[in-house]
Q: What sequence folds into this?
């Protein structure tokens, strides 16, 4: 059985559209610049403005490999923004590999919270270690910048995975 908590509240559709348009504009600018430089390996990566740079950033495989696909849909634009932030946080501040989220997905809002004014999608991060995410993703800038509600789903799979992966 999975247990969920809300990390960031669900947003109004206007806020989601604004955040998605912001990311889409940045991707289009990036694509235009990479086309000028004739780069074939196109990756787009966006750091949340409140998270400081890290010397470990150079080690990270950065970003969305298919930015042209994500610009076609607001929920994918916003989910990619959340994914970029999670990668940034765990790359710079995650101490243990098993603390990394297992799944980041886009799901429709549950019927009991869905209303006409709300953006009908949410991002669900499946992890058993939300502490690092809570530290960096719950701030006043986050809701507007992400433009999408974020929930944490506790998977309960961690003991199984540790047992499965441990040397016999």
A:
């Amino acid at each position: 059985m999975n247990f969920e908590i809300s990390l960031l509240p669900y947003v109004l559709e206007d806020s989601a559209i604004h955040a998605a348009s912001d990311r889409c504009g940045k991707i289009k600018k990036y694509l235009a610049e990479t086309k000028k430089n004739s780069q074939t390996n196109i990756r787009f990566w966006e750091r949340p403005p409140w998270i400081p740079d890290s010397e470990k950033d150079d080690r990270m495989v950065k970003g969305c490999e298919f930015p042209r696909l994500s610009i076609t849909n607001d929920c994918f634009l916003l989910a990619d923004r959340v994914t970029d932030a999670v990668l940034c946080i765990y790359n710079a501040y995650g101490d243990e590999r098993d603390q990394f989220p297992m799944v980041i997905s886009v799901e429709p809002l549950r019927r009991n919270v869905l209303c006409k004014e709300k953006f009908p999608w949410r991002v669900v991060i499946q992890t058993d270690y939300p502490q690092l995410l809570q530290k960096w993703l719950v701030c006043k800038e986050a809701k507007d910048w992400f433009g999408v509600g974020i929930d944490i789903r506790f998977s309960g799979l961690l003991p199984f995975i540790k047992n499965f992966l441990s040397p016999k």
Summary: Strands lie at 3-8, 103-108, 121-126, 149-154.
